[in-house]
């Protein structure tokens, strides 16, 4: 090779090296914190997180490449919620995804007033004081509701459809909260026309809950409705066990009770909510503000029936109800 050609080649290579080095610079690592009210080994919650991660990857965010996702599981325990919030805030996340209920979200808001927060699993974020309005959340928080209070009427209608003999219904709700009262009012709105007497049962104290259900079940023609709340989710295994022990047909607000052995559920499609949540995380990581992202309601719902539980209760599920089911557990 001639000297002039060699120098030209060397010069071109020298220019290429810095360009290649710059092209190989790693992407800025962003941080996503996830605070869940469940336990780490919950199959339903792991399925939702898997959908969330897959949806993020489709939007260009890969855990370990340009984002790091930190998880904390609170199991519905107030002290663990406070500890997990403190740990996550100390990590300086770019955004927090919270499925821990109103207490966890309020705790996050106090601890991190400027960190973007996206919630899921909330019935009444305005009434609970988490956002200023659905269209304009304000502050640092937005997210996805899981339904409206009118759901209560649907739950009682389903209970009568799958167990026509029910004339009394114990309604498990979180007393003293806007969602607890609102969902109960929704059920009350149709109870007279369906000929059902209602008995409210609190879900905050396990001992009280067991005593109330046991006392309720002493009289015949009873059924159970479990409304949406963090404590109900935390105690779902106990609630399903109580319903089975006392032979109470029960309607639940979400599928995970039915996969745990409950009779029937009607509620939002949480996997769809997980996909949509990833979209909000993407928008926030790209610079949008929670205050500018409206709180959204679910657009997909699912009816799930456990035929094994129906058989154990001596119930024959109507063909019309089976035809409408989105999921049937044999």
Which key features would you list for this structure?
330 residues, alpha/beta, Rossmann fold, 2 domains, 14 helices, disordered N terminus
What does this structure look like?
The chain is an alpha/beta fold and 330 residues long. It has two domains: 30-146 and 270-299, Response regulator (Rossmann fold, 3-Layer(aba) Sandwich), CATH 3.40.50.2300; 151-268 and 302-329, 3-Layer(aba) Sandwich (Rossmann fold). 45% of the residues lie in helices and 19% in strands. The protein has 14 helices and twelve strands.
Low-confidence stretches: 1-10, 13-23
CATH topology of the largest domain: Rossmann fold
Rg result: 25 Å
* Number of separate strands: 12
Whole-number count of domains: 2
Instruction: Classify the beta-strand content into a percent band.
Output: 15-25%
CATH C-level of the largest domain: Alpha Beta
Structural class: alpha/beta
Strand order of the largest sheet: 7-6-8-9-10-11-12
Cα end-to-end separation: 78 Å
What is this entry, summarized?
The chain has two domains: 30-146 and 270-299, 3-Layer(aba) Sandwich (Rossmann fold), CATH 3.40.50; 151-268 and 302-329, Rossmann fold (3-Layer(aba) Sandwich). It contains 14 helices and twelve strands.
Explain the layout of strands and helices.
Layout: H1 3-23, E1 30-36, H2 43-58, E2 67-73, H3 78-90, E3 95-99, H4 101-111, E4 117-122, E5 141-145, H5 151-162, E6 168-173, H6 178-188, H7 191-194, E7 197-202, H8 206-216, E8 222-226, H9 230-234, H10 236-245, E9 250-252, H11 255-259, E10 264-268, H12 270-285, E11 301-306, H13 307-312, H14 319-324, E12 327-329
Parallel strand pairs: 1-2, 1-3, 3-4, 4-5, 6-7, 6-8, 8-9, 9-10, 11-12
Antiparallel strand pairs: 10-11
